[in-house]
Design goal:
Elements: E1 11-15, H1 20-30, E2 34-39, H2 45-49, E3 52-55, H3 61-69, E4 73-76, H4 83-89, H5 100-105, H6 108-116, E5 125-128, H7 131-141, E6 145-149, E7 160-162, E8 180-184, E9 190-198, E10 204-206, E11 210-215, E12 218-224, H8 230-246, E13 251-259, E14 265-271, H9 281-284, H10 289-297, E15 311-316, H11 324-328, E16 334-338, E17 351-356, H12 360-369, H13 388-391
Parallel strand pairs: 1-2, 1-4, 2-3
Antiparallel strand pairs: 5-8, 6-7, 6-8, 9-10, 9-11, 9-13, 11-12, 12-15, 13-14, 15-17, 16-17
Length: about 400
């Protein structure tokens, strides 16, 4: 499908069912585009924000064709959209992101093969098809480790943490359900994300590196600017640039890393779509992740990304809403964003807040001083692979 420049009045289609959708829709409408959303839930925020909503499953070919033919361009706002769905849409309209990056990153074995051919560090792993394979591989993988299906998105019920030999027997109930990878746990000090906007000509636009903290397998905080040594920042950018260059993709993508105490970097994942870690840039930089994504797809010129102010993003849970009322009337440097999902659809994270301060340390101290989140563990345990990206 021939790519073309989009102008105000052209129509952008948004497919996917994550909170990214409503923010993309809002950004697109501000830029003058018409928006058509495709979602299985007619009450989803993206559908309410769009000029037109098409209700259908991600596998309904006739609905998908009708949706695609109404759009000058379609973007998927989440890496959960099946690659074959995107391939189908691409037959009827332009999808600059393409389907190849999704195909690679939605399959753990393909993703690892892609990363291995670039000689980047990834966690040691083995392909598993039977219980015997686990017993044989554990000698080289070591404890602790985690068994995951090669297809992402099945959730924690299809994953098993193995801390000792007796835990292997717990895998018997799931091992016959498909092919798995057994992955070693990397003892790390920080988890880092780099958000990149990749243009049609291959030019890469980097946002500042973000440090992420997880809580109960969900993203809890994103911090920028993270305090990193210059050589670590340089290596993160070098590896991320190589991965992004090799990936057939246009638009915003995220590459996550584990940083060990010794300074080694391991690639955790590649997400060919906007990622929650980039929400922090709504205030931290001069342009948001969503506007860069849309400008890239529409073939508009991309401004230089500039850091504006230290910012911490905190994911809000439903139980946080009541204690946050006090902060709502006190904090003039706290900025809130709610996704506006219907009350009938309980979201684990109904929104997030951005805390601005002179330094990220000051912002974190202010967050901790509220005692809203202090009794919750933000350390990453050996289930580090079971983050929000994988349990949905």
């Amino acid at each position: 499908m021939e790519e073309k420049t989009l102008f105000p009045g052209n129509t952008i289609g948004i497919i996917g069912e994550s909170p990214n959708g409503i923010m993309l829709a809002e950004a697109a409408k501000k830029m003058g585009f018409k928006v058509i959303a495709y979602n299985s839930d007619e009450a989803a925020p993206t559908m309410q924000e769009a000029d037109l909503g098409v209700v259908g499953s991600l596998h309904n070919k006739s609905k998908l064709q009708d949706f695609a033919e109404r759009c000058d361009l379609v973007t998927y706002e989440s890496d959960k959209v099946p690659s074959d769905t995107v391939e189908l849409i691409g037959q009827y309209t332009q999808v600059p992101q393409g389907s190849e990056a999704l195909e690679i990153t939605q399959d753990r074995l393909l993703e690892r093969a892609f990363l291995e051919q670039m000689n980047v560090n990834i966690a040691p792993y083995a392909t598993i098809v039977s219980l015997d394979d686990i017993y044989q591989a554990i000698g080289s993988i070591g404890y602790p480790c985690i068994l995951k299906p090669i297809q992402k998105g099945f959730g924690r019920k299809r994953q098993q943490i193995i801390n000792k030999q007796s835990d292997i027997a717990k895998c018997a109930d799931i091992i016959d359900l498909g092919t798995y990878v057994l992955e070693a746990w990397i003892p790390y000090e920080k988890e880092l994300s780099v958000i990149i906007g990749k243009e049609f000509d291959g030019k890469l636009n980097f946002f500042p590196i973000v440090e992420n903290l997880y809580q109960d397998h969900h993203l809890f905080q994103s911090i920028t600017k993270s305090q990193l040594d210059a050589d670590v920042q340089s290596e993160v950018h070098r590896i991320a640039a190589e991965i992004a260059t090799q990936l057939e993709y246009v638009g915003i993508l995220e590459i996550a890393f584990f940083l060990t105490k010794s300074g080694s970097l391991y690639v955790k994942r590649v997400v060919p779509a906007p990622h929650k870690a980039g929400f922090v840039f709504e205030k931290a930089t001069n342009i948001s992740m969503f506007e860069i994504h849309l400008r890239t797809l529409a073939r508009m010129p991309i401004p230089q990304v500039r850091f504006v102010q230290p910012t911490v993003m905190v994911a809000i849970k439903n139980e946080d809403l009541e204690p946050l009322r006090m902060q709502w009337v006190l904090k003039d440097n706290w900025f809130y964003r709610f996704y506006r999902y219907p009350q009938t659809k309980r979201m684990v994270n109904p929104g997030y807040l951005l805390v601005l301060a002179e330094t990220t340390t000051m912002a974190i101290h202010q967050i901790e001083a509220t005692n809203i989140w202090n009794d919750k563990n933000t350390e990453i345990d050996t289930s580090k692979g079971m983050t929000d990206e994988e349990i949905q």
